[in-house]
């Protein structure tokens, strides 16, 4: 008889504090005489854990932002351009005139639906606006950016 368990149930029922060696998601192992199937629903962790103090920088501080790669940051600046490539796969908010070197915010196509009104809403909400964006700094072509997936990661400054 096989039993389908999540990692949490596996650890509670078997008194384990970690997965047995060689056991990974969606695999089967035997613990004692009982075959166990571990099934895990993977979820993307938030870019920034709640309650964590994060540095606040200006979008113009590109060299400082590069030092924070793979770390959370809060970045403030004015959107100079909303770029929508012909592929339609993303929207890029450019925070400077030189698109090759400025800080950017990227929103992937799979997340457009998180904005009521999709791509058009993204452009209308953020074009020429002062924003504060919170998330993990990544480098794309040696330029710092934050990839966001929901409106809550972007705050528009009061006008």
Gist?
Helices cover 14% and strands 35% of the residues.
Describe the overall structure.
The chain is mainly beta and 159 residues long. The protein contains 3 helices and 11 strands, in the order E-H-E-E-E-H-E-E-E-E-H-E-E-E. The strands form 2 sheets. Strands 4, 5, 6, 7, 8, 9, 10 and 11 form an 8-stranded mixed β-sheet that branches. Strands 1-3-2 form a 3-stranded mixed β-sheet. It is globular, with a radius of gyration of 21 Å. The N and C termini lie far apart (64 Å). 21% of the residues are buried. The N terminus is likely disordered.
Summary tags:
single chain, 159 residues, 8-stranded mixed sheet, 3-stranded mixed sheet, disordered N terminus
The secondary-structure class comes to mainly beta
Tell me the span between the first and last alpha carbons: 64 Å
* Number of strand segments: 11
Work out the radius of gyration. 21 Å
Amount of helix: 10-25%
The percentage of residues in β strands lies in 35-45%
Tell me the major beta sheet: 8 strands, mixed
Number of helices: 3
**Uncertain runs with pLDDT below 50, 5 residues or more?**
1-24, 40-45
Order of helical and strand elements: EHEEEHEEEEHEEE
Query: How much is the average pLDDT?
Result: 80
Principal-axis shape: globular
Please specify the SSE layout and strand pairing:
Blueprint: E1 3-5, H1 7-14, E2 27-31, E3 34-38, E4 56-58, H2 62-66, E5 72-78, E6 81-83, E7 90-94, E8 104-108, H3 118-126, E9 130-140, E10 143-148, E11 154-156
Parallel strand pairs: 1-3, 4-5, 8-10
Antiparallel strand pairs: 2-3, 5-9, 6-7, 7-8, 9-10, 9-11
């Amino acid at each position: 008889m096989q039993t389908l368990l999540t990692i949490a149930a596996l650890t509670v029922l078997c008194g384990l504090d970690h997965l047995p060696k060689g056991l990974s998601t969606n695999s089967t192992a035997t613990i004692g005489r009982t075959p166990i199937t571990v099934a895990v629903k993977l979820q993307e962790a938030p870019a920034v854990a709640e309650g964590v103090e994060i540095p606040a920088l200006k979008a113009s501080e590109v060299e400082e932002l590069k030092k924070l790669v793979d770390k959370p940051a809060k970045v403030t600046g004015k959107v100079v351009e909303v770029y929508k490539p012909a592929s339609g796969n993303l929207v890029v908010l450019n925070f400077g005139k030189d698109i090759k070197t400025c800080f950017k915010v990227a929103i992937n196509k799979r997340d457009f639906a998180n904005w009521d009104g999709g791509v058009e809403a993204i452009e209308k909400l953020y074009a020429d606006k002062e924003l504060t964006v919170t998330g993990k700094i990544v480098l794309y072509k040696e330029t710092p950016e934050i990839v966001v997936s929901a409106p809550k990661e972007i705050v528009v400054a009061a006008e």
